[in-house]
What does this fold into?
Amino acid sequence: MGGLLDKWEESFLRELVELDTNSDEKKNYVECAEVAKRNCEEAGLGVEVFDSKHDNIPQPNVVATLDTGSKTTVLLCTHYDVVPAGDEEAWKYPPFKLTLKKDRAFGRGVSDNKGNVVACVSAMKQLIESGGSKVNYKLLVSPNEEIGGAWGIDYLINGGPKIRGDFAVVVDSGPSYVSIGASGVLAGKMTVHGTQGHAGYPFAYNNAIHLSIPLLGEMLGYIDIRRKVESSLPAPPGSPHRNLWGRFSMTVFKAGTKTNVIPGKAEISFDCRLIPEEDPKEVEKSLREYFEGAKTETFVDASLDILMNVHGWHTNPDHAHVKTFHSAVQAAVSPDIPIAADLGGNDGHFFTEVGIPTVCYGTLADDNNYHGLDEFMWLHDFEKVKKVLIQFAEMC
It folds into this structure.
């Protein structure tokens, strides 16, 4: 039943998955960090815990080190917080119980990102036993990744500890390519302003829902503008475009309170994805100009608020450590594994901002349902991550 997991790996993963560490409630963080700490120590690693306690809520970061005396230190970036399970009754397999079925492991966070935590520690454990590592590995196991990383990786890199390394691997990506970059994000909302009143007298009020329809129609044109923005970095395998491209999506519509009330306000949330080379400030300027034009065209009273503005990042594919890591993946997994950049964002920008070249690799396959119901991890992908980390440490 356990497939490719040995007893120690299965026990470690089970302990992690059975703790609900969702980023909304922030519960069980101390217990989860203790599980990680204990297992890292059992693996023979040196362990430190840095608590970035925020709003009186403990948020411990576990830092586990394999010190070989090398001049090269590689940071491995993982996280133990998860998104909420949602409707637990809709899960076929209980979200906070590790379920092993043939070649898959089910449970919330098993792929994103607790399976990667175990894969990293298991790889370091095997390297200690073999004595074959030519680098120092420093594993960062943090909370807060699902909501921005301010009290997780950001704290470790820019806060009290100010951890540094010569290279970083964000072990929170997919197994089908080596990522050397990620998209930025500009997120916010458009608010249409009408007047609220009794639905029996629609002629006396300005219905915000009705007003929003022509404005949304105009904003659809911004999708085409963003689509034409192209990165120099390849898109992931299976993407509709060869290179990473800009994207704009309207994602949430909120309006009204009762059937007999004309809504006086409608809010439309949006998500704008930036290619790694773009300046978020310039994209915001472009979006605002287009929005103002849409308002003029439709005669709609509306406002735009930016709620998130995060730039993307990328690393030179010709960097020596990037080439070695790519070679390690090709040797351990397949010679056909390409280099690409992520359509989404991740914690890699915290490392590149301080001059640390970075790549991403991990167990998050497209079909894993991470953030959805019945999240699972392919056990053969777990094994791939372990082999890659071992191979890379031995090749450096």
Summary: Residues 199 and 261 are 5 Å apart (CA to CA). The domain at 184-310 is CATH 3.30.70.360 (Alpha-Beta Plaits). The two ends are 35 Å apart (CA to CA). The longest strand covers residues 184-193.
